[in-house]
Amino acid sequence: MEQVPARVLVVFAHPDDAEFGCAGTVARWVAQGAEAFYVMCTNGDKGSEDPALTSPELARIRETEQREACRILGAKELVCLGFPDGGLEDTHDLRRELVRCIRQFQPETLITSSPYRDGIWHRDHRTAGRVALDAVYPYARDRLIYPEHERQGLKPWKVGEVLLWGSDEPDHFVDVTETYSTKVQALLAHKSQMGERPEENVAKWVRQRCEENGKRLRVPLAEAFKRLEVRR
Ligand SMILES: [Zn+2]
């Protein structure tokens, strides 16, 4: 039996990362009653080759696109931390904010990008994943870490499991056959990133990957994760 969390927190570096990584899974869980919360670590202000666009303009466009993607997926809330694209660092500031989100939203499951992937992988993806894992364990769990949160009414929180997308060794697959079209719709909400004919180009590539993952579950389409259980 599939365990559907009551609350899931999705932590990602850039607008559109989470749509590639886990949108089908989130849409599936939301349809089954889960509440989904999104934390976008950077503002995506470097992701364009358009010479007419400035970074602040691009950041505004991309936040709007992410809000639309979250709306399509039925997410309850999007938190934008606003760190610069390409400049996400393993700092107290980032860790404290992720701990705050975990204590505020109290997710059973946290989904983020793999910090361990070999080869070409955006540095921000590694950093978001690594700091999210640190925030889960032990930082959000221990009440004396960031005690200002307790003064603000936030209690320590133990996340039960972490799912990592982009892993070289996925061991957990979620059937997204029924929510695949919602995943693509959310992905295509990132219009500034999709280039020409996204239905043919981006969506085709994403479908191939989901079909590949689906073979592991013997279903048409699936998303793939590395699953980490957190000791309670
Ligand atoms: Zn990214």
Summarize the structure.
The protein has 232 residues and is of the alpha/beta class. Helix content is 41%, strand content 19%.
Features:
alpha/beta, Rossmann fold
Give an overview in words:
41% of the residues lie in helices and 19% in strands. It has 232 residues and is an alpha/beta fold. It has a seven-stranded mixed beta sheet with strand order 3-2-1-4-5-7-6, sandwiched between helices. The radius of gyration is 17 Å and the shape is globular. The structure holds zinc ion (ZN). The site of zinc ion has 5 residues, from loops.
**What is the terminal separation in angstroms?**
21 Å
Bound molecules: zinc ion
In the predicted model, the low-confidence regions spanning at least 5 consecutive residues are: none
Overall morphology: globular
Helix count from the secondary structure assignment:
7
CATH architecture: 3-Layer(aba) Sandwich
Order of helices and strands: EHEHEHEHHEEHHE
Sheet-strand content, in percent, reads 15-25%
Describe how the helices and strands are arranged:
Layout (H helix, E strand, L loop, with lengths): L6 E6 L4 H15 L3 E8 L12 H19 L3 E7 L8 H14 L3 E5 L9 H17 L8 H4 L9 E5 L6 E4 L4 H9 L13 H16 L4 E8 L3
Parallel strand pairs: 1-2, 1-4, 2-3, 4-5
Antiparallel strand pairs: 5-7, 6-7
Helix pairs in contact: 1-6, 2-6, 3-4
The structure holds zinc ion.
